[in-house]
């Protein structure tokens, strides 16, 4: 039997799910299904670790579990020694735009840089200082810190590694800023450290400011932020990580751009990044972008409205439309089965009882009865999502905990129980036809 979740994790998971969002921690305690999809995406990480690159789209309707799958993979990747960046697109964060929207996405990615030892983002200073400390420890084994040769030897090692980046776009300036960060770290100059971090995060207003502050000729901006991500992927591997995985959610916000020309500039950026990966121009780098079927396939406004993308991503003549193709660049998310939803409810019960320290006497028939009520509501076959099912069930557990005389059977029979509505923005699971219960109950 798996170990119970710590109370702080159980509380975070339940509160997040009750609020309709995917928790960043504790997913292993509620994960059901998706094993095949996760295996396929983890195989991509093996390619990335071997020096290759990968690009995938995860596609599913609202509530199909896209964001849940993304967060689960994020945690798996960090456990396996990868650095991860993630960002949600929005009207202010796109891949391209005249108002700095592409750079805003880059900044969000950098702010969310996460590793196994710092999974909540903001890992850039830690990564730099851990690497510098390691170099200083190696040099210090042979040369005392007080010896003038100590700084010279550390500088030499940093220059040797950073110099390998100089053949890449803006690699020379990237290497220089790394060196400046070490000097600031060595002598405790917090202002200089902050200036270096600002350059990495693309926070300089112009090249003149960057040159006057750091002595570099370039800056990270709207036109070259993708190249900066490739630099980070190479650097992270050189300092001990297996690669960089970049996750971009809410691609639907590109579909919602009202102006065709602006949409196409963004789709052109997707194409450029996709081509770069396929042509072997990126190393140790993986992209996962998350979309809905409509924002992908709509011939007027979706990604497939951009012919160059459609021709690369659409299934070929011999694709089996009745089966999942996990080798395709597009992974389509299917609904969770009733069996998987049943297991999910059991896992939620275990989290809830461990958190509040009580015993819930819920029979198999009561779990099934609850699911049946949820799926028999009007419109459930096309609109219900596990977001609403989970939200309702957590509320049921709250009621059971506070009223020890209450049972699920009595609660479902009461006029006070009304399944919650869903606004279509859920991101946990799927749907099904109520007739499938016949096979499940037997």
Keywords:
Rossmann fold; disordered C terminus; five-stranded parallel beta sheet; globular; alpha/beta; 442 residues
Short summary of the structure?
The protein is an alpha/beta fold and 442 residues long. The protein has helices spanning 7-18, 35-49, 66-79, 101-111, 124-140, 148-163, 171-186, 190-200, 207-214, 225-238, 252-255, 260-278, 293-297, 307-313, 338-356, 364-375, 380-383, 386-402, 408-413, 437-441, and strands spanning 53-59, 83-88, 244-249, 285-291, 330-332. Strands 2-3-4-1-5 form a 5-stranded parallel β-sheet, with helices on both faces.
Describe it for me?
With 442 residues, the chain is of the alpha/beta class. The protein has 3 domains: 174 residues, Rossmann fold, CATH 3.40.50; 90 residues, no CATH class; 104 residues, no CATH class. The protein has a 5-stranded parallel β-sheet with strand order 2-3-4-1-5, with helices on both faces. The C terminus is likely disordered.
Secondary-structure topology with pairs:
Blueprint: H1 7-18, H2 35-49, E1 53-59, H3 66-79, E2 83-88, H4 101-111, H5 124-140, H6 148-163, H7 171-186, H8 190-200, H9 207-214, H10 225-238, E3 244-249, H11 252-255, H12 260-278, E4 285-291, H13 293-297, H14 307-313, E5 330-332, H15 338-356, H16 364-375, H17 380-383, H18 386-402, H19 408-413, H20 437-441
Parallel strand pairs: 1-4, 1-5, 2-3, 3-4
Q: Tell me the strand order in the biggest sheet.
A: 2-3-4-1-5
- Tally of individual helices: 20
**What would the CATH topology of the largest domain be?**
Rossmann fold
Low-confidence segments, given as residue ranges, are 423-442
CATH class of the largest domain: Alpha Beta
Q: What composes the largest sheet?
A: 5 strands, parallel
What's the mean pLDDT score?
87
* Helical coverage, percent range: 40-55%
Could you say how many structural domains there are in total?
A: 3
| Spatial shape | globular
**CATH architectural name of the largest domain:** 3-Layer(aba) Sandwich
Total E-strand runs:
5
Helix-strand sequence = HHEHEHHHHHHHEHHEHHEHHHHHH
The secondary structure category is: alpha/beta
How far apart are the termini? 26 Å
**Rg (C-alpha, Å):** 25 Å
Strand % is: 5-15%
